[in-house]
Design goal:
binds zinc ion; Rossmann fold; alpha/beta; elongated; 301 residues; single chain
Length: 301
């Protein structure tokens, strides 16, 4: 059976069959949901930049999760979020936080009713109002369906943000080198590099501006809705960044699903012990075992 990565490419029958197969095989089923914003990203990147980043991250993460035995699919993207900071620019389509939370939790109820175990919110729009709304939605999904049922990996957390380059860490990172590189590595036809190369670098830290109570891009001095160094973006850097971002999503989904994955591993051990004797797999002698208990290939934590 073909199993597309995108949820909306299934029919009712093929989705039900894929979920039944996963359940029978003891494989958890997870929805990765790209959520983002429609908002200005300088004169060189489109309004859909945050959505495109979330979609590419979800795609790479879904492939990785499938390789680890999780039946992962990507939900249709949600392109609207809390985008008050970009007010004053055409194309900044903000919605109230309560609307966003209501939509996310209502749809998550349906994903879980259909047989998915987990909903992961994949987000690259970093405005505090958006982060707060998604955190509220994640907590509401967990309260209704259990701690394993939702995750919201945060790009701005210390755990992951520290690995996303100097520009990101400085906070001067809206439509600059960081986001431009991610766009070049996924949808290069959407990047106007000729315009980007002519933009002077700006050192306006958005995180500092927000902490200081600055109301928006314009008041922060970002008259073209960018900060950072758009001219320095490269596809190679974007690929390296996506490796970290996909590791973030996969790790946090894996952590949320740990209990379910353990149960499925136990089931497969039980099944393997039911095989005929000539098919059993040799296990290493105790002397060969790593005293740390760590398996080869275990990712560093
Ligand atoms: Zn953005």
């Amino acid at each position: 059976m073909s199993r597309p990565l995108e949820l909306d490419r299934y029919t009712t029958a093929t989705l039900s069959a894929a979920l039944d197969d996963a359940r029978r095989a003891g494989r958890p089923a997870a929805v990765l949901w790209p959520v983002g914003s429609t908002e200005p990203h300088g004169p060189h990147l489109p309004l859909c930049t945050d959505v495109k980043l979330a979609e590419e991250n979800a795609r790479r993460s879904a492939l990785w999760l499938r390789a680890e035995g999780v039946f992962a699919v990507i939900a249709p993207s949600l392109p609207y979020g809390v985008t008050d900071f970009a007010e004053g620019f055409a194309g900044a389509i903000s919605i109230p936080a309560a609307v966003l939370v209501g939509l996310l939790t209502a749809a998550a109820d349906r994903f879980i009713a259909d047989g998915f175990d987990h909903v992961c919110l994949v987000n690259h729009h970093l405005e505090p109002g958006q982060i707060d709304a998604l955190t509220t939605a994640r907590d509401a999904i967990r309260a209704r369906h259990g701690a394993h049922a939702a995750s919201f990996p945060k790009v701005v957390s210390r755990r992951w943000g520290a690995r996303l380059g100097d520009e990101f860490k400085s906070g001067a990172c809206h439509a600059g080198r960081y986001e431009g590189s991610l766009m070049l590595a996924s949808v290069p036809h959407m990047v106007d590099m000729q315009t980007a190369r002519a933009l002077p670098p700006l050192d306006i830290s958005l995180s500092k501006a927000i902490a200081d109570g600055t109301p928006g891009f314009i008041a922060a001095g970002m008259g073209q809705a960018y900060t950072g160094d758009p001219a320095a973006a490269s596809a190679m850097e974007g690929d390296l960044l996506y490796a970290v971002l996909a590791e973030m999503v996969v790790t946090e989904v894996r952590e949320a699903l740990a209990a379910l994955l353990e149960a499925s591993a136990e089931r497969s051990v039980e099944q393997s012990t039911e095989r005929p004797a000539e098919q059993t797999i040799e296990t290493p002698a105790p002397d060969d075992a790593d005293p740390s208990g760590k398996q080869p290939g275990d990712p560093a934590r």
